[in-house]
Amino acid sequence: MSQHALLSAGCKAWRSLSCPRSELRLDLTLGCGQTFRWRETGDGHWTGVMRGKVWTLTQTEDTLWYYVYSHQINPGTENKQKWKVEEEEQLLETMSKRKIDMKQDEAGFCTVMSEPDNKEEELLRDYFQLGVKLGDLYRDWSTVDPHFKHTADIFKGVRLLRQDPVECLFSFICSSNNHISRIQGMVDRLCQTLGALLFKIDDVAYHDFPPLQALTDPSVEMHLRDLGFGYRARFLQQSSQIIVNSHDPDWLLSLRSAPYLQARDSLRALPGVGLKVADCVCLMSLDKFEALPVDTHVWQIAKRDYCFAGGSSQKTLTDRVYKEIGDFFRKLWGPYAGWAHSVLFCADLKKFQKLKEEIPALKDEKTELKKKMKERRPDRCEEKQKRKKGKKQQRT
């Protein structure tokens, strides 16, 4: 039986590339809610599906290590459970043409490829966008934003992924009124039900993300409702049907070359895609680094840490307030505002609060930082406090 690879086992199939933790931290980047396909399968080892392959990733201080599993598909059993789609057949045909001499390592589960596959390193570099110098961006943001500087000292290496647009879109349609662990469960069930089996490791089956055609069948909606998708099942089926029937096969991918607002408006025409989902897809798969997804969580960050007063009389996040928050941060952080936003979003997640506790005297530093920020923006903060005071007096 295949087992999840561990770097400590000394398997020869592990490959590496130079990448310091300050440029990428796997736990923060893969666990902050921008992707839902990765799980920690060993201490500091993350296994998931990316670009039709199953990977295990880990890192040392200056090196990113990766292990790619050979495909292990049984077409006879899979065809009974999956929709038959052209993309899957093409994938199998491409795999069968690859002439790679493989043998089993002494550990009994590691596949050693005699020919190095530079394409895998290219896929990894593209996925993590390693051409973007994250350290330089952190320094730029820290110069103009004292709150970010404070956060950056703790949350280094939060990097934006460049995901497949189809997977990104349909994953975030599942995110409506949802939390990360539940979204992960939905995406897993979606892949297990409609995606091609790629590999089975330690009794865990890893499936590819289903192609658009697999989602278009009218029976998909009821099937996904039975799996707990609720109203999102209809959005998934209808959006895939619209894309397949009304657009070219590469339509989603072509939006990478469209202007940001045009790409966002195009996505919003799909069922189940509002401003936030559209901005998530733009930022995390369509190269729109100025896109800034805003939800009540981000709104709270803006009010709490930046004394943002916009929409203070609103109980719900309106389109106008959404735009004001996005414009506020874009003006502050510049063209890579979406990347900076992801750092603060990650830093505010409950699962990562223990990192803050590990820093001595953090509470005192945070209190001092808030004082300094209020001194830099006294008018906005004072105006906000006056409004609150006035409302209390009116109630009394």
TrEMBL record:
Q: GO MF terms on file? A: 8-oxo-7,8-dihydroguanine DNA N-glycosylase activity; class I DNA-(apurinic or apyrimidinic site) endonuclease activity; damaged DNA binding
- Short name of any one Pfam family annotated for the protein: HhH-GPD
Question: Basic residues bias located where?
Answer: 386-396
Write out the entry's keywords from A to Z.
Answer: DNA damage, DNA repair, Glycosidase, Hydrolase, Lyase, Multifunctional enzyme, Nucleus
The entry's localization annotation reads:
Nucleus matrix; Nucleus speckle; Nucleus, Nucleoplasm
Q: Which residues form the HhH-GPD domain?
A: 174-349
Q: What Gene Ontology terms for biological process does this UniProt record contain?
A: base-excision repair, AP site formation; nucleotide-excision repair
- Extract the InterPro entries matched here: DNA_glycosylase, HhH-GPD_domain, HhH_base_excis_C, OGG_N, Oxidative_DNA_repair_enzyme
CDD domains in UniProt:
ENDO3c (cd00056)
User: Hey, which family's this protein in?
Assistant: Belongs to the type-1 OGG1 family.
Name the record gives this protein: N-glycosylase/DNA lyase
Q: Give the originating organism.
A: Carassius auratus
Gene from which the chain derives: ogg1
